[in-house]
Specification:
The chain is α+β, with helices and mostly antiparallel strands and 328 residues long. The chain contains nine helices and ten strands. The strands form three sheets. The protein has a five-stranded antiparallel sheet, with helices on one face. The N and C termini lie far apart (49 Å).
Length: 328
């Protein structure tokens, strides 16, 4: 389905879903994001709302219920402002909806709209201490929270990231053929697997994470940083949240200062052992290859096209630096 056709189809699903919440189908509605899911801004007599039409085949119904439950718990238990789902007229948060004359049934969720703007590039170093502190609080919550018995999310361990069953596709599918350096990425992959196996999955370092804390999923409003888009949240290493926060910033001239600012913020709330600090380059390399796999399985998206061949070229350079660093 072409981009414009997909957008039109999702808009039809969104309009068909509105009466499930007592909103007229003719209410003002416009798409504000189309990546994995379609996100729409809806005008109602109770203020703006955000409506999400889910992609097919990524999460089960319990998977989405689990995401919503964690966001509710984070706000209720620790005061972290996150998008809160609104129950439909039948008191269900998730509605199953198809567009007229279509067999494509989608999960649809309506959220309260939370204001804010994505952090500006010039504010990165100032924003990251707060992000680090928020991450530490989220990790503390994840370690203590009693999850519902039906809780179900993806697992972002080695197998779910780069192994035989990667959630977003294997990095080789996103490698730009003809650019060279694939053997370097193979070596980096093998080195990461060895180090991640040694690092282990003790509950103190492996648990429920957001897993996509990049700038596009942060909102700043009057000095407060809010976290949105928990669609990829799941079980992984807590330090992966740091790696995801510097997605597409790995070649930024100030990346070391940005990482240091995140660590400073994290340490103001939680703790990181010397072993965890030493593992940060491995998690940053892991994230880099996961995103390459995503691009390979989403080659028709605007983001994948923007990444282009340069992402492969830069990733090979980063892998060379990574291998040099860990073999010193």
């Amino acid at each position: 389905m072409l981009h414009q056709e997909k957008e039109s189809h999702l808009l039809e699903v969104a309009r068909a879903a509105l009466p499930r919440w007592g909103i007229p189908p003719a209410a003002p509605i416009r798409m504000i994001s189309l990546s994995e899911n379609g996100i729409f801004l809806v005008g109602t007599d109770r203020g703006n709302k955000a409506l999400r039409v889910h992609r097919t085949g990524y999460h089960t119904m319990d998977g989405v219920r689990s995401e919503l439950a964690w966001m509710q718990a984070l706000q209720a238990d620790m005061g972290l402002e996150t998008p809160q789902a609104i129950p439909g007229l039948d008191d269900e948060y998730i509605q199953l909806v198809a567009a007229p004359d279509s067999d494509d049934v989608r999960m649809v969720v309506l959220f309260e709209f939370i204001p804010g703007d994505e952090p500006k590039p010039e504010d990165l170093i100032a924003a990251y201490p707060q992000l680090g502190a928020i991450s530490a609080r989220m990790h503390q919550h994840a370690r203590q929270w009693q999850r519902p018995s039906w809780f179900e999310r993806h697992i972002w361990d080695y197998e779910g990231s780069l192994g035989a069953r990667p959630n977003w596709g294997h990095w080789r599918a996103g490698f730009a053929a003809g650019k060279g350096g694939i053997e370097i990425l193979e070596r980096a992959d093998a080195a990461m697997k060895q180090r991640l196996d040694a690092f282990g999955k003790d509950p103190s370092r492996f648990g429920l994470v957001h897993s996509d804390l990049r700038l596009a999923n942060l909102l700043v409003d009057n000095g407060r940083t809010k976290v949105i888009d928990f669609d990829d949240s799941g079980f992984g290493w807590f330090l992966y949240d740091l790696a995801s926060s510097v997605t597409f910033l790995e070649t930024h001239p100030d990346v070391d200062d940005i990482v240091a600012a995140w660590i400073d913020g994290y340490l103001s709330v939680g703790s990181l052992s010397a072993e965890e600090l030493a593992a940060i380059p491995t998690f940053m390399m892991l994230r880099r290859l996961i995103i390459m796999g995503w691009a390979g399985s989403h080659a028709d998206t605007e983001l994948a096209k923007w990444m282009g061949d340069q992402y492969t070229v830069d990733t090979v350079t980063l892998a060379e630096k990574y291998l040099s660093r860990i073999t010193r």
